[in-house]
Amino acid sequence: PKFNALSLIKQQHTQTTKTTSMSPPPVGNYTLLKTIPDDHTLSVLVESSPLVVVHFGAEWCAPCKAMNDAMEALAGEVENSNAFAYCDAEVLEESAEKYEVTSVPTFVIVKSGEVVKTIEGADVGQLTRAVKMHCFSNAKSVEDEGKFKATNKTTVMKASKEKETTNSNNNNNNGRKETEEELQKRLVHLTTVQPVVLFMKGNRESPQCGFSRKSSEALTNCGIAYGTFDILSDENVRQGLKVFSDWPTYPQLYLNGELAGGNDIILEMAADGTLKTECERAIDAWTKAKTERTNKRIESILAESKNILLFMKGSPDEPKCGFSSKVVSALRETGVEYDTFDILKDEEIRQGMKAYSDWPTFPQLYYKKELLGGCDIVLEMAADGSLKEEITK
Predict the structure, then answer these.
(1) Contact 116/110 with Cβ under 8 angstroms?
(2) Residue 387 to residue 368: CA distance in whole angstroms
(3) Separation between Cα atoms, residue 286 and residue 161, nearest integer Å
(4) Which of 61, 135, 222, 279 is catalytic?
(5) Phi/psi of residue 172, each to 5°?
(6) What is the sign, positive or negative, of the torsion defined by CA atoms of 372, 374, 376, 379?
(7) 135 in catalytic set
(8) 222 an active-site residue?
(9) Given 64, 87, 135, 222, which residue is catalytic?
């Protein structure tokens, strides 16, 4: 089973950072790094440039700021014909899907329209080497590369067998020391953000102790989706989780928010075949509970809105895709009042609506809590005059 962790991770990052509908680099003004506002602009850039280095990020992801600084520095070292671009992965959804972006930051190097390199994570060294290989011409190395290395963490957008969960800083965004209450809330979040989470030393690709390696291998061999958290990167979590779990050592395996045990228990479960069974049971229960919560939220949104509600990308004044813009125009022509919900600001609703409506795309127009349809249907109804008639019954 696959599940989407973006909404929960985003909630953690947006506790102290207000999310906007714009797509600027997450802090910073740049002269060489281009900010791409939409999918079409990126397509034009890729088609018109011999080589493009694209950074897919998110404004709530702190490492993206440092990586934009690195991109700006690299851009100053290459020929002007090459382009460096920043894209908000949540705004440029079609491009993110096209280039198979599943985490931020992710860097995609496109040469003559073909992807030649994809890098996941805030790894300045790897990015620098890739840029040198593919687009440097008699270039010198980037100075002060080391000042970016401390941000080498990946924030996972979509959990899968290969991806890691996000690691959080010990302090909040304004540098204030984390309180005990804040830590407890974060531990609850981290232990429930995915149905199967292994708190370990290192990560599955590079475990930092033998016990963590054995536990990770046991889970991988089960063939189930699981997330990991590197406790070496966050001392607050490392010490706090020992008390939270009443378990003094690592690794620690959590199944649907409950401690399953440490390395010995994990290996015993793997040996008798119960590890896979219990993990699958946790995934099923977690997914079912998440779906129920999401559906209740959707029903609440529908109940509290006007009879006409448009789930769209952006707002009526600033639509973020052409389809949403067209539906907004069609509704305006009817002269009927309506509400909108920006699905770009709420990933849980964005994904949940697809299943709730049994409709895979946006926008989605609802009338009296019933789905009328998407862009094509709304435009057809507007063209034959039935739209206004239908939404004023």
Answers:
(1) yes
(2) 14
(3) 16
(4) 61
(5) -80, -175
(6) positive
(7) no
(8) no
(9) 64
